[in-house]
Structures are given as structure tokens and as C-alpha cells.
Design a protein that fits this description.
Blueprint (H helix, E strand, L loop, with lengths): L1 H15 L3 H11 L5 H8 L3 H20 L3
Helix pairs in contact: 2-4, 3-4
């Protein structure tokens, strides 16, 4: 249970580093399984914009979890 809370805290810490747009698009994709096209339609933007937002969040996660402990 403690490990789960620590993991959740780490995930929330990374999401806090994201812009609101990046966070929303990432969560729509990762949690709710919407496609880039569906998110683009919801957000009135291009699929490329959705892709860039999601990739930015992924990079933040990679950087965060690669740091030395």
C-alpha cells in the first residue's frame, strides 16, 4: 500500500510539471484510451498538436524516472 502511494505521488509530481493542455491530452489518451484523432476533435486542434503534447509528457516521465535516487 505504501509503495502504491509513493508511485501515485511520483506520477502526480510529473503531471504537475506539465501544462494543463499537456496533462489533459495525456490523460485522455493514457487513461481513457482516446485516439489522437478523437482528442484532436474534442480539443479542436490537429493530431500533430496532440502528438506533441503527449510526447512532451512522456519525456517528462522518462526524465523524472531516470534521475538517480
Amino acid at each position: 500500500m505504501v509503495c502504491q502511494q509513493e508511485t501515485l505521488d511520483e506520477i502526480l509530481a510529473v503531471l504537475a510539471l506539465c501544462t494543463p493542455t499537456q496533462r489533459e491530452r495525456f490523460l485522455l489518451y493514457a487513461l481513457y484510451d482516446f485516439s489522437y484523432a478523437e482528442i484532436a476533435e474534442m480539443e479542436d486542434c490537429t493530431k500533430a498538436a496532440v502528438h506533441y503534447s503527449i510526447e512532451a509528457v512522456r519525456k517528462k516521465f522518462m526524465k523524472f524516472f531516470k534521475k538517480p535516487t
